[in-house]
Request: fold
Amino acid sequence: MKPKALIIPCSGIGKTLGSVARESAFRVTEDLRPETSRLMPLSPLVLGEEETREILASTPVVAIDGCTKSCAAKVAAERGGKVDQALQVSDAFKRHRGLKPEGVAELNKGGLQLAQALAEEVAELVDRMGGEVKNA
Amino acid sequence: MPELPVKKVGIISCSGEEMAEGTISRLATRRVLETLQPERTVTICLPLFLAGGEGERAFARHYPTIAIDGCEKRCAARGTEMYSGKPAGSIVVSDLYPRRNSELGSARRLSNQGHRLVKTTAAATSKLVDRLLGPRPLVGLKPAERPAVATKAVVTCSCGSGIPVKTLTIAGREIEVAALPVIYQSWRDSGRMPDQGVSPEMVQLVRVYNPIPENEEDAWKQAIALDYARFCSEAK
Reply:
C-alpha cells in the first residue's frame, strides 16, 4: 500500500523537542494512521539515495521538526520532496502549554502527552491531504 | 595551524528511526556523551550537515569524529565523509550484534537485549575515544578528584558545532567562513600584516576549513584581505 504521506521527524539527538518529534512520528505511523502514513528517517535522505528520492518525489511530506533549524523540512525539500506540512514541536508546545516536555532518552509524562497531542494533529492533516491511497 | 577550541571527539549517530539499531545508535551516543566521556565528546545531528551552515559542515574538519551506524548502509559515516570530513572511527551496531528476528525490540521500544547492546555499543565507542585522545587521566587521582560523570553531565550538542564562523560577502553572496576569527588571530599573532596581502599559504589555511571554488579564489582573497584589514584595525 502506498501511503498518502511521509512523516519525517527531526533526528535531533540532544534536545527534548527532537525526541517529542520522533515520538509523535511513531504514534502517527504505528498507532493512529498506520495505513495511510509512513515514517521516513532523515539519514538516507542526507545521503540522497536514489530509492528514497523516488519515494519522496511521489509522496507528500509532513515534516516534524524540533527546532527552528528545520532539518527535516529543509533536507526533504533539498532532496526533491514536496513538503506539504512543516510543523515545529515548539509551536505545538505553545498550543499545549500545560504539557511541558523533559528528558531526551526517555520523555517525561508531559513530553509523551505533547507527542500524542501533536500526533493527533498530524493524523488529521494526513486525513485531509489530497493524495489517494494507491496500491504500490 | 590556528588553535581551535578544546580538542574533543565528535560523535555522529545514525538517525535511523525505522529500526532498533538506529535507536541503539542514538542511545549509545547519549551514553558516551553523558556518562562515559562527558568531558571529551560533543555531537552534531547528521542532517545538519545538509540543513545547517558552513560552521556545521566544518565539524569533522575540526574534531576527529566517530560515526555510530545502525546498519551496513553506514549513513552516518558516509554522510559525514560526504559533507564534512572522513570519520576517524566507525562503529556499526549490526556488526557488533548480528540481529536475529526481533530480539532487539523495535525502534520505538528496545527489548532488554536491545538495551544491553546500547551499553556494548557505547563501551566500544568510548574505547575509540580513548584511542583517539589517549586514556582518561583517572589513575592516581583520588575519587573526589575524578571527573564527575552521569547525573549532572550536560550533553554538548547539536545545532551548532562550537566552531567560530564569520560571514563575508564573496562574489555577491553572503558566505559563512568557518574558523576565520581564529585564523585571523593566528595571522596577527604571527606578525602577518594586512598590507602584505593574502598569500597562497594563507588561502591554503582557509581552505582547510572551507571549500573554496577554484573560480572564486580571487574573490575570496579580496574579501578576506579587506576583512582582515578591518580585524587588525579594530584590534589596535
Helices of chain A lie at 16-32, 42-47, 50-58, 71-78, 89-95, 109-128. The interface with chain B takes residues 9-15, 18, 22-23, 25-26, 30, 39-47, 67, 69-72, 74-75, 78, 104-105 of chain A (CB under 8 Å). Strands of chain A lie at 5-9, 37-39, 61-65, 83-88. Chain A has one domain: 5-125.
